[in-house]
Structures are given as structure tokens and as C-alpha cells.
Amino acid sequence: MGTSMNALYSAAITFTGQNMGAKKYDRIDTIAKISTGLIVFAWITLGGLTMLLGRPLLNIYTDNPEVVELGMVRINILMVAYFTAGMMNVYPGITRGMGYSIPPMLSTLIGACLLRIVWLWTVFAAWPTPAVLFLCYPVTWLISGTGQVGIFLYTRKKVRRRDGEAIGEGLAKR
After folding, report:
1. How far apart, in whole angstroms, are the C-alpha atoms of residue 59 and residue 69?
2. Alpha-carbon distance 10 to 14, whole Å?
3. 3 state SS of 163
4. pTM of the full predicted structure?
5. Cβ proximity of 13 and 97 under 8 Å
6. Which of 43, 49, 90, 138 has the fewest CB atoms found within 10 Å of its own CB?
7. Which domain holds residue 123?
8. Would you say 152 and 91 are in contact if contact means Cβ atoms under 8 Å apart?
9. Domain count, the chain
10. Tens digit of pLDDT for each residue in 17-58?
11. pLDDT at 167 over 90
12. Cα dist. 63→18, 46, 66, 74 in Å?
């Protein structure tokens, strides 16, 4: 799953950078829409297959039924919300392709790193079960992914406004 989301990130940052250079901003919106569609498609197909074939896949690595059962708990918790991990990965790529790398970095540091530490110190400390530990990922993916989409929308507006003003200034000088 992670590899497919990383591939979408790489494509998004590359295509966005190319269209920024060409000042084809409408195409960046298309990149965001197509990327979101591909995230959902990968999530449904790969996540669904992982959930469906989880036990046989886990049995490749272990024959311990307790380990397989715990692995299934993890798979079921993570796969249900894995599209949020895709959003957390792909939208920073689009924003970076637009030339803004600091805001997505800060959102990831806060949403994926800091909040996970806070989760361990608070929620997991109060309910120390594997399921609560595994829930840390989808919760932080959702928070960080929401932040990343918001940063993209803000940056998109900022870039269009900035370049619209620059184009207007160029016309005024003629």
C-alpha cells in the first residue's frame, strides 16, 4: 500500500512542478482530482485485497495464531482508513511542486510525529491495548491529511493571486 501512495506522490510532485513552470494552474487542479481518485482506487483495491487475504499473507511469516490474530487487528484498523495516509502523502507533493515545501513539512511534523508522541503519552497510556496503539496511525493520518489538503488549497489560491498580480503588472507596463 505504502509503495502505491509513494508512487502517486512522485507523480504528483513531478507533474505539478512541470505545470507550475508552464503556468498551467488549471492542470494542477486536475492533478489533485486525479491523484485523489487514484488514492481511493488503490485504497479500495489493495486495501480490500489485504483485508481479504490478510490471514494467508500473515501465515507466510508465522504459524503462531496469536500473532496472526494481532496482525489481522492491525490490518483491519489501518486498511479501513488508509486513503487518509494517501492524502497525507500526495497533497504535500502537489504543494511542494508549487514551490512551497515548509508548510507541508510542518504539517507532517505536527500531524504525524508530534501527535503520535502525544497519543502514546495520553490515549495509549490510558488504554494500553494493541488496538489503541494501532489507532494512532489513522487518527494522525486524518489530522495531517486534512491539514495537507488545507495547505494545498491555501497555496493554490496564493499562487494564482500572486501570478495574476504579476501578469497584471506586466500588462500595465506595456
Report:
1. 10
2. 6
3. helix
4. 0.87
5. yes
6. 49
7. 2-173
8. yes
9. 1
10. 999 999 999 899 999 999 999 999 999 999 999 999 999 999
11. no
12. 49, 24, 9, 17
